[in-house]
Input
Amino acid sequence: MPATKQSGSETRSDAIRFVLDGEVQTLRGVDPNTTVLNYLRETLRRTGTKEGCAEGDCGACTVVLGELDGDRVRFRAINSCIQFVPTLDGKELYTVESLRAPDGALHPVQRAMVECHGSQCGFCTPGFVMSLFALYKSEPVPTRSRINDVLAGNLCRCTGYRPIIDAAEKMYHSDSESEGGWTHRPYEASSEASSGESESVERLRGIQRHGTLAITGPDLQGGQRVYYAPKSLSDLAELVNQHPEARILAGGTDIGLWVTKHHMDLDAIIYLGDVEELQVLEANETHIEVGAAVTVTAAHHLIAEYYPDMGEMYRRFASPPIRNAATIGGNVANGSPIGDSMPGLIALGSSLILRKGADTRELPLDEFYLAYQQTALEPGEFVERVRIPVEPTDRIFKMYKISKRFDQDISAVCGAFGFRLNDGKMKDVRICYGGMAAIPKRAAECEKTLEDSSWSEVTVARGMEALDRDYEPIDDMRASAGYRSLVTRNLLRKLFLETSGRAGRTRVLRQDPETG
Ligand SMILES: Cc1cc2nc3c(=O)[nH]c(=O)nc-3n(C[C@H](O)[C@H](O)[C@H](O)COP(=O)(O)OP(=O)(O)OC[C@H]3O[C@@H](n4cnc5c(N)ncnc54)[C@H](O)[C@@H]3O)c2cc1C
Ligand code: FES
Ligand code: FES
Output
């Protein structure tokens, strides 16, 4: 696909600019499929960042991004193995090498790791350090449980996590706290930047662009690949319409693996992460609106406030570095039958705002999936927003994620349930399971059986039988068909035990889902 001519008065940039160790890096002609990890190790020879799995699972490749947020810099850990280099544009990149001060002093995180004997093997340690560095830069002193959550994406298979968790607690009390200019100053959008951070803010301001990033880079076969990163919704819509064959890139946590594991060539990419209008995240009386560029991390707290069970599921969705990149829009658009967002969103009656050019349409999410990995998206159309209803408080909503591991695991089955009780009778029942069919699918037979029935042991038994008619699950490495069927039935029973005799949605106002 040739690079398109610029439209209207839009100015285009062909250079990727990001900050590394306080210096602005300018790159041109990079293959847009190059991962940040490969660029670091093979081009810059910064080999502190390691490759373990190349699929976002182990955390050995963790690096930290600094991004402008008003007058502050917001830090987030990501997996460099599945992020493409052009997505660094406009950001600051920290690797484990960035942490050492010019005088050689260790960062408090590194010092604490040494003192607590947390540095166990050379593969995992840099990743642990970077996850802890992001925590140190982002939050007030955390609880031990929060530290566990933060480290859920960093795997150690040799000795264990205790010394590392000890180090995470100790890093706030390190004697070297003020050495090398590092201070513990948790991120708060409203507070003022420190002097060091002000310099970062200025550097980042200097590399923000207004128009589309349009780069062309060589592939390994001597061909050309293109990558666009528009800044506005209208430019994005125009590009997607002009190039319906291009791959839309959001957080890249599915797409990255197509390159690293399936060795696919992505010849044309349109990145939506820089579009301001897609960062919308707001709730009103009737809806929660989640723009397509909003990450799971960013949306988690607001959704959890209304639907604590969804919050719990998102706490267990992948790992913090994945959630820091992955979007809910990408989860929904990817349409995996085992994706975790869809059962809950469908049981809540959510819809999608789809855009093609200047036109938009609203489609109920349960009408979006046509067949295995086939959606109702037309060529040139994309997901602009996910719209989640704010349900009346007499509605009950519950959901359950069943996976082999508690953290960082894909669901074998995920079940979500919405209904209200009117004089003891079930009304407006919506049930959806993931992992049970080729698409996230509503349990139509079960819903019919439960509708207008009293919420009783007898109804549950009938509902469990109906579920067998709704689904014919498959055997795979996550679970056998028999296990899936049994769990699906048992989740309905669990729902009954947890909700019978109790009407009303549990709404926990302003609870922090990470810290409780
Ligand atoms: C280690 C690991 C663990 C994971 N664990 C989980 C888990 O527990 N639960 C779970 O559900 N998923 C999990 N995933 C899968 C993945 O993280 C999610 O599907 C994620 O939400 C995808 O979002 P993204 O922004 O990264 O999408 P991308 O990878 O950028 O895109 C995914 C697909 O959606 C399309 N797309 C993205 N945005 C749009 C849009 N706005 N309009 C149209 N098309 C679009 C892309 O073209 C692509 O086809 C995991 C992935 C990894 C690597
Ligand atoms: S190398 Fe394992 S998460 Fe990136
Ligand atoms: S620290 Fe690398 S396997 Fe334990």
Q: What stands out?
A: Residues 55-57, 247-255, 257, 272, 292, 317-318, 322, 325-327, 329-331, 333-334, 339-340, 382-383, 410 surround flavin-adenine dinucleotide (ligand 1) (CB under 6 Å).
